[in-house]
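Try this one yourself first.
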């Protein structure tokens, strides 16, 4: 997989890519309420997005519903009220614009508006969402989650987390292909923190290369999550170094795209990796 087809954009994956997180929610775990007042704060969102691109992001992921453990569910109308005006503006920028949604109705409206990718944390559980994406040439990210955001952290349990998540991702790829979405439009994601304990998350990161599905891009999101807090002992606002280290470890183990809040720090970490690998290749 060297190119991910995302509607009219082609994302070159011969080098790792950074996806910047734009949460237009009142309650996201790390940045809720920053970009949404009574309505989306469009000037501030555009400034944030431009800064992320200048810092090295190639994709921007816009979310209108928090998926943090126990988060309240949001209706499609409210989700669209939050994300649609935002994506309409972000589409002016030179980036792959993704929308983080599990609702077919939301996906349809934002794809009509021109977004390049749908990021579904339920991994395409709703066949209607797969049909909507299949009817376009946009990309789709399918993530693994045990349970639902409301229940997922109550008692996550696996026989063998690496094998089970790997099997699930391979199965979702088959389902997506049957629905009519080609391999070069698909992205898989092990879903760090979604129905996983710290030990599960660390095992997945350690064995990330085993989770790859042939011919399919891989995305990971660990940025600022509780696994970083548990390892470093730091609060949400002080997890950028731990998050950049986790992104680096993921790229070394085969991730193509890292979904992060702190783009500049992540880009520096990946620059260091590229410099070392280039020097290695030249020897
Ligand atoms: N994590 C979050 C949201 N969406 N999508 C993918 N593909 N992978 C992830 O790991 C992932 C995701 C949670 O992070 P965040 O968006 O910062 O928080 P919230 O869900 O509270 O808005």
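Now uncover the answer:
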């Amino acid at each position: 997989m060297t190119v991910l087809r995302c509607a009219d954009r082609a994302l070159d994956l011969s080098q790792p890519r950074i996806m910047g997180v734009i949460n237009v929610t009142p309650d996201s775990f790390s940045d809720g309420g920053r970009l949404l007042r009574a309505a989306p704060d469009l000037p501030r969102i555009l400034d944030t997005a431009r800064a992320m691109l200048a810092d090295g992001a190639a994709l921007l992921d816009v979310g209108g519903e928090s998926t943090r453990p126990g988060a309240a569910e949001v209706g499609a109308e409210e989700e669209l009220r939050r994300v649609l005006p935002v994506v309409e503006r972000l589409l002016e920028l030179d980036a792959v614009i993704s929308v983080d949604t599990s609702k077919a109705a939301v996906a349809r409206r934002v794809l009509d508006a021109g977004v390049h990718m749908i990021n579904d944390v339920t991994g395409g559980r709703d066949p209607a969402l797969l049909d909507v994406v299949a009817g376009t040439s946009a990309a789709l990210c399918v993530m693994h989650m045990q349970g639902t955001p409301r229940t997922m952290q109550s008692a996550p349990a696996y026989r063998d987390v690496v094998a089970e998540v790997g099997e699930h991702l391979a199965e979702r790829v088959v389902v997506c292909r049957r629905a009519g979405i080609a391999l070069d439009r698909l992205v898989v994601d092990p879903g760090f923190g979604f129905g996983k304990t710290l030990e599960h998350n660390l095992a997945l990161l350690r064995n990330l290369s085993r989770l790859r599905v042939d011919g399919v891009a891989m995305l990971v999101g660990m940025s600022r999550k509780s696994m970083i807090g548990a390892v470093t002992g730091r609060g949400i606002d002080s997890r950028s170094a731990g998050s950049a280290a986790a992104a680096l470890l993921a790229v070394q183990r085969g991730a193509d795209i890292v979904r992060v809040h702190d783009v500049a720090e992540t880009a520096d970490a990946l620059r260091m990796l590229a410099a070392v690998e280039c020097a290695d290749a030249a020897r």
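Discussion: The pocket of 6-hydroxymethylpterin-diphosphate is lined by residues 21, 23, 25, 28-30, 63, 66-68, 100, 119, 121, 141, 143, 189, 191-192, 219, 221, 259 (CB under 6 Å). Strands lie at 3-6, 9-12, 17-23, 59-63, 96-100, 117-120, 139-143, 186-189, 217-220, 257-260.
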